[in-house]
């Protein structure tokens, strides 16, 4: 392999520094501003000076973009009141200032349970703010490659974006395997079966299904190249788009009726050599996808 | 309150809403105005298929009945916690439902949510929480997760969370707390105003489609920082 910087192993700010044009990031409400969660202290839980997300402006290939990066090391990237409001503010500012794109480096377990109700409302506010930006013709590009994956409400938010990039080691889903196992037992989902977890939620699966537009290796330069390719990929949603999306999702439901495992589903969807997918790298998986699996 | 009684109190006899398992759909008439009704019952877990069924009703309304208001009737235990739904991409199906509702709003449909029984987390985010405005019945319940499960996941003592849930709107399940935080605009069928139809009538007459929940949360004292943080990002140098 090579020695390229691992996206998964970087912190949120390291990713920003390495992914966007050198020295171009300017942060709004940086840690020195100490805009922090009002809820964690009363639980005796440590707070973060940035509430686990960095937002600001930067340049990508010379183009002005807005940026948000969630820090998975702080509460798993969970969305609380302040964290969510920083994202909403960024999207509202994008609507006003019209950058070339908004790039969201998503790493999150979804709603931050320590802020429960406030976190749930915040995620839905992020979703509406994102869709306002998308429908104004400003592309929202989501990059997923952090160790915590992108789950819960943020898994939904990610699928509301114009363009989604995932690494082969990234994960995108709704409920985590542990939650499903706790709810319906180990027979339903064995959270310790890593191969099963990756086949069900991992980047290769999401790309082969068309849930991600691009699959890349776990390298910051690869994410940068993918984000550069996605600039200009604005796709405001029309009735025809959503009708096409509906047909695609209905076909998938039918194809999935006889598929208990990802390999069977890939075969149903016409992916050749489905059995070999777990052993392939990102470039090889990229070659496998059928044109018909294109996203909405 | 059971869904059929909610529909009866809202629309009287001029309603054609039916249940197919835990899926609700149909139409009804209020003051001569036909309204699309779609939602769930029996505390339905919202899985991939049920999200699609609801999305289909919204898309059909946008395609065939331009401008017709849409009422979302919400009773859910949250997202379906099954491996097969994850395999299919339940997050994409839910995002699709949310995008369909968002499209309806942009195309001039009023979209109103009503939590008439219970609403939990993932089942609520792409229904009532993405409507123009969400309302609730006074005895409904809205929460992210039950206290014992929340204690397990956060590793916080259950007794502490239970105590906080009595006083802190962030942890308490009652709909009044969601009203204070701005997540729910108001309650229908209160002692002061028992007429549900009056609630829907007023909601449909309110033409604002901007997301005012953070501002409501601040004004009502239940969510003090969100609106200010948004403004700080907008104003930051």
Descriptive labels:
heterodimer, A: 11 helices, B: 237 residues, alpha/beta, 44% helix, globular
Protein architecture, described:
- The complex is a heterodimer of chains A (296) and B (237).
- Chain A has 296 residues and is an alpha/beta fold.
- Chain A contains eleven helices and seven strands.
- The two termini of chain A are 34 Å apart.
- Chain A is globular and about 55 Å long.
- Chain A has a domain at 12-172 and 212-234: 2-enoyl-CoA Hydratase, Chain A, domain 1.
- In chain A, helix 2 links the parallel strand 3 (63-70) and strand 4.
- Chain A has a seven-stranded mixed sheet with strand order 1-2-3-4-5-6-7, sandwiched between helices.
- Chain B is of the alpha/beta class.
- Chain B has a single domain (3-210), classed as 2-enoyl-CoA Hydratase, Chain A, domain 1 (Alpha-Beta Complex), CATH 3.90.226.
- Chain B has helices at 3-11, 48-64, 83-88, 90-106, 122-125, 147-154, 158-167, 175-181, 196-205, 213-219, 226-235, and strands at 15-20, 23-30, 33-40, 44-46, 70-74, 76-79, 111-115, 118-120, 133-136, 141-143, 186-187.
- The mean pLDDT of chain B is 95.
- The interface between A and B is large, with 83 and 77 residues.
Concise account of the structure shown:
The complex is a heterodimer of chains A (296) and B (237). Chain A is α/β, with parallel strands linked by helices and 296 residues long.
């Amino acid at each position: 392999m090579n020695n390229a910087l691992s996206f998964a192993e970087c912190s949120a700010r390291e990713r920003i520094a390495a992914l966007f044009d050198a020295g171009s990031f300017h942060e709004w409400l940086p840690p020195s501003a100490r805009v922090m969660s009002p809820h964690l202290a009363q639980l005796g839980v440590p707070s973060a000076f940035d509430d686990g997300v960095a937002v600001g402006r930067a340049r990508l290939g010379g183009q002005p973009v807005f940026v948000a990066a969630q820090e998975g090391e702080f509460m798993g990237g969970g969305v609380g009141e302040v964290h969510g409001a920083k994202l909403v503010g960024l999207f509202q500012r994008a609507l006003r200032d019209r950058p070339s794109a908004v790039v969201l480096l998503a790493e999150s377990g979804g709603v931050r349970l320590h802020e429960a109700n406030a976190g749930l409302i915040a995620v839905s506010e992020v979703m509406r703010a994102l869709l306002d930006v998308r429908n104004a013709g400003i592309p929202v590009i989501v990059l997923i490659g952090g160790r915590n994956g992108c789950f819960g409400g943020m898994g939904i938010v990610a699928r509301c974006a114009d363009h989604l990039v995932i690494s082969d080691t990234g994960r995108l889903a709704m409920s985590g395997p542990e939650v499903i196992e706790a709810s319906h037992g180990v027979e339903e989902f064995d959270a310790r079966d890593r191969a099963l977890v990756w086949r069900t939620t991992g980047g290769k699966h999401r790309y082969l299904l068309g849930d991600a537009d691009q699959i890349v290796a776990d390298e910051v330069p690869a994410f940068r190249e993918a984000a550069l390719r996605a600039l200009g990929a604005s796709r405001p949603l029309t009735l025809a788009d959503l009708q096409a999306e509906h047909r695609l999702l209905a076909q998938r439901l039918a194809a999935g009726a006889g598929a208990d495992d990802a390999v069977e589903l890939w075969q149903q969807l016409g992916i050749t050599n489905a059995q070999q997918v777990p052993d392939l790298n990102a470039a090889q998986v990229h070659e496998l996808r059928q044109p018909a699996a294109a996203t909405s | 309150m059971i869904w059929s009684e909610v529909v009866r109190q809202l629309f009287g006899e001029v309603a054609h809403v039916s249940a197919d398992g835990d899926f609700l759909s149909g139409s009804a008439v209020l003051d001569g105005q036909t309204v699309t009704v779609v939602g769930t019952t029996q505390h339905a877990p919202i899985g991939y298929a049920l999200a699609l069924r609801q999305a289909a009703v919204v898309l059909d309304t946008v395609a065939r009945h331009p401008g017709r208001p849409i009422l979302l009737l919400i009773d859910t235990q949250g997202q379906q916690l099954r491996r097969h739904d994850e395999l299919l991409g339940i997050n994409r199906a839910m995002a699709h439902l949310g995008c369909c509702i968002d499209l309806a709003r942009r195309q001039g449909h009023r979209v109103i949510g009503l939590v008439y029984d219970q609403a939990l987390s993932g089942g609520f985010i792409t229904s009532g929480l993405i409507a123009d405005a969400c309302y609730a019945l006074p005895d409904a319940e809205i929460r992210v997760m039950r206290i014992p499960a929340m204690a397990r996941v956060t590793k916080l003592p259950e007794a502490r969370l239970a105590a906080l849930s009595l006083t802190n709107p962030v942890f308490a399940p009652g709909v009044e707390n969601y009203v204070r935080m701005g997540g729910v605009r108001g309650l229908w069928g209160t002692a002061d105003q028992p007429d549900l139809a009056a609630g829907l009538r007023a909601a449909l007459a309110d033409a604002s489609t901007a997301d005012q929940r953070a501002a409501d949360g601040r004004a009502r004292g239940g969510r003090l920082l969100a609106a200010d943080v948004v403004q700080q990002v907008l104003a930051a140098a």
